[in-house]
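Hi P.,

Sorry for the delay on this. The queue was packed all week, but I finally got your sequence through. Input first:
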Amino acid sequence: MNRRQLTLILVAFVVLGGIGLWLRHRDVSSYQTTSGAMGQKVLGEFDPNAVTRFVLRRGTNSLSLAQKDEQWVVAERGDYPANFAEVGETLRKLWNLKIAQPVSGPLGASAIERLELNPDATNQPATVIELLDKDGKTLKSLLLGKQHRRRPTTPSPMGGEEGWPDGRYVMVAGQTASASLVSESFSNLEPRPESWLNKDFFKVEKTLSVSVTYPEATNSWHLTRPTESGEWTLQGAQPGEILDTTKISGLANALSWPSFDDVLVKPNPADYGLDQPILANLTTADGFQYALQIGRREGEEKYYLTVNVTADFPKERTAAADEKPEDKERLDKEFKEKTDKLTEKLQKEKALAGWVFQVSKWTLDSLLKKRGELLKEPPKEEASAATALPAPPPINPVDAILPPLPPVLPDLDDEHEE
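Then the structure:
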């Protein structure tokens, strides 16, 4: 081997060694970046208890949830109470949100549009989340982009080849150099105020009396029963008015599980038929009185109503004259537990006063019946004598048995004499 060949070998060795070192450094750098990012919190560290306002924006839609008087409220619904469990769960997810897979950057405008991370886009804009403290300072801000979908391994006969959401692309606001894929899809995180309301509503139990008063008096009615399992009686029943048990079978459970879809902010009563409402009053065995004003029916599926709740139940227990000491402690405890539950129920339901609720038709279906719809139908009248067929002539019993006599023949002798 001459000197020239040796030099070429050394040069090749140096070049190959340099390339190897560069590739190793690149792989190590990439590994360190990836392993350092995966599993890290997207928003870093912050105190979720310091968040006093939570803002969602997407396009022209906006939602603001805020802490007020030690509870979360929905600003767009006149500070109606928000679903505390939903707000708390969302804050927990954001605080614990971790990177499942980093998206290499820096990202260009086309990549940001493709991942739906542009909050100003005309089509498919990003959802903006802002977490603010009591002073209005933004603690964290995040952009929610396109959902990641897991496609089925085998084709489904029902379709749905696009799969189901199992993650979402996110970007910390102001950090356009990189984005991340997280395992939370945030499918329900939308700036729709009605979906964030506390949907706890009133509940009528052990109903003893129901009255419904219509603007047209002839449609009104009032039913009562002596016990929660007794039979209903129509008050002021007119002759011929008999209750149809099949038509009032659902009355015992009317408003036992009501729900509402939305609340109205400062409505004009005349716009919703609440200036001339249907009045419904219900009384229960526990002493609760529910006064409802029911407004206009909206389309085929919705009504508007207000509800006021009062109650009158004993606060102290009267012991029986022959009550044994060993029974007194047990009975006192049971009475207190029941009274505490009724008191808590009354406080929650009294807070519904002053609001106008939008409810579904099925909520009021069993209650909104007119008087005639509760009664048995009158028996059908028999055919009148004027339209009846004429009666056949009476039949002589003898004629019915004996055949008719033959005609009388002339006397032959008389004819011969002539």
